[in-house]
Amino acid sequence: MIDDIAFWFGYLTNGKHLTWYASFQFTIFAALMGGTLAVVFGLAGATMKNSRFFPLRLLGTIYSSIVRGVPDVLFFLFFPLAFEQGVEWLISTQVCSPAAIAAQTAAWPPCKEANWFLGTTEYLILASVSLGLVYGAFASNVIHGALRSVPAGQLEAARAYGMSPRQVLWRIHIRQMWVYALPGLSNVWMLIIKATSLLSLLQIADIVLWADRLGAPNFLPAVGLVHEDWRWRYYLVLFVFYILVTWLSERAFEAIMRRAGRGMLSEART
Amino acid sequence: MQGFLNDLAIMAPAVMFNIYFAAASIPIGFVLAIFLALGKASPNPVINRLTRGYIYAFRGSPLFIQFFMFYSLALSLNIALWKPWGISGFVLHPLFMGPLVLILNTAAYTAEIFYGALRAVPRGEVEAARAFGMSPRQQFRHVVWPNLIRLAWPAYTNEVVFLFHATAIVYFALPVIGAQADLMITAKTLVEGDYNAFLHFSVAALYFLTVSLVIFFLFGLVYRRLIRHLPTQPRLRFAPRWLR
Amino acid sequence: MKKIMLAAIAALALGGSAMAQDTVRIATEGAYAPWNFLDEAGKPAGFEIDLGNAICEQAKITCEWVINDWDSIIPNLLAGNYDLIMAGMSITEERRQTIDFTQNYFPPDPSKFASAAGTEIDFAALSGKRIGVQGGTIQATYAEENYAADNTIVTFTTADQAMADLAAGNLDTILADGAYLDPVVNASGGAIVFVGEDVLIGEGIGGGIRKDEPELKKTLDDAITALKADGTVDELIAKWFDGRGPFFAQ
Known about the structure:
- The complex is a heterotrimer.
- By secondary structure, chain B is mainly α.
- Chain B contains nine helices and one strand; from the N terminus they run αααααααβαα.
- Chain B has a domain at 16-177: MetI-like fold (Orthogonal Bundle).
- In chain B, helix 1 (2-41) runs antiparallel to helix 2 and helix 1 (2-41) crosses helix 4 (94-120).
- Chain C has a five-stranded mixed beta sheet with strand order 5-1-6-13-7.
- Strand 1 (176-177) of chain B pairs antiparallel with strand 10 (152-156) of chain C.
């Protein structure tokens, strides 16, 4: 019995498992950074949609409808690749000699000096930016709606008080907007959490990749413990992990909403 | 331009896989969701807890993980040995496993939508029906259900669109049979060939957008029918509230 | 201003690629024991990792290992995410169209079919069977060309996943490298057996590099030649493949 416990403890704390546990940092980083960027892009998108300048308004609307009209995973694969190619093209205009371009046999990059190495860090940042862009489109919708939910009387009162338009926007409008936006933003946050499971598609050694590697059947003692296909157990752990994160996020958002709703009119708490 | 037309032709058969996955899972998911929503509203504590737990678990975890988990779980349970109609490899075939997981997933999301609508059904109408002497079954059939579906339809439309988008990850998680490839796999393979990410992903995106709009249009027609008796006609808006 | 910014980006990139000259990034799959796998410590290990480190030592270059999924390992090489693939990749004419290879560091080795014990398969008229392969391998291409018409080819992301499906009865047989299947069949205690005849495909396993890198190719080839000559390669093969070979020395 004691031996068994010691064995399983040893197994679950071997380097491979420790690497798995450590890889949760990528998921958490992508979620937090993606969430922050989503709010930033969301604010930008909502401001554009509210703009009096027609092209900006059009741009905001196009951004939020196109991105929401295609699957997140498509954008998730497309954006990092497109960004990389964009940077490489920029570099190539500076460093590629015509001879080097002519000598290039591969389809991309234009010449081999223009190549940009992408490692886990770069991919992780690009993945977070694409999460931010995709879910920023959802957030912009939420924020756009919330900005319109702020009672007009509040803004009129602020104007009557002699505040400049900028002050009205930042001190009253956006300040009060959060209360209306929080339920929707919490929904967007849940989406971002779930989308972080796609990181392995960008060659990041994340929790999903390690679950597959750890659970895959092993027949060779030289490789480690010989075991049959255990993948479903590892995926079950991830399944439960995500449910727990969702539950914790819900509690956190409830607390924030209670706090943000203090001193607001009761109609605000929808 | 030639490349664009080529891509359109290459991806035309691929989109059928995505449409199949969505079409196979939506009707069954819809029926399952009704029962789950009723279960969540049920006063029976066992049924209530179970359905609540189910809905929470499937809405609270990524579909990507659900695919991996159910496939490997089915393998470990030796489900492959079950051969309906003597066809080997039926149960673990992506064309079966894909819709199965999608059904389990969409049923949870749809049930949440239906549950919300169920609670929004006007109390007065239900009470009137009861006063009228209708049995619980009749009440549901003639009063609760018509209200529920009308209230839930806009959100359900969005759920269907997002379910269609979710079909994009089926083949990232399940083994690929023969030359079968959906939109994403086709686009990815093409990009890996010539690095023209802008072209190939745009064409795939165009297909997704087009089908999404078609779904939206068809569901809009149904919605118009559902609300044809209302004095003020609310319009179906592409404003997802319940998202995957 | 714009010009300056561009120059700054370019300088950054140049700095990056200058550094990359000193460090050679080697990509491996980490799911193809005993060639390459992730050991108990979570680090890449196996025949190719030992050999790769020996090559780098011989050629006096610093090396860094990168884990990359098999199905995107060639595209990501071409995209420049690493410089060399050592992932049990057989040298074939088809792959030569897109990438270059070093000389082989593992001799040509037959591919084999394996099935659960008791499976009856008539290889003379193979039809209606479910054949598992790892996607993008020479075996996948071979199965696609020879058996796709009458059988179902099921493609997996890793070889281990194909093995798991075979063990669970979801496949009739799998086609894979003989040296990959050997230890698995041995360890299965008779549950999994070889069936049918061996198939010889490929020209042995070599390192994959981009086509425009003759210097790197020469450096690596020289190092492999030296390691073959002093017996290091054969020693490593003996170490990782239970002393069975195949070996380069006659």
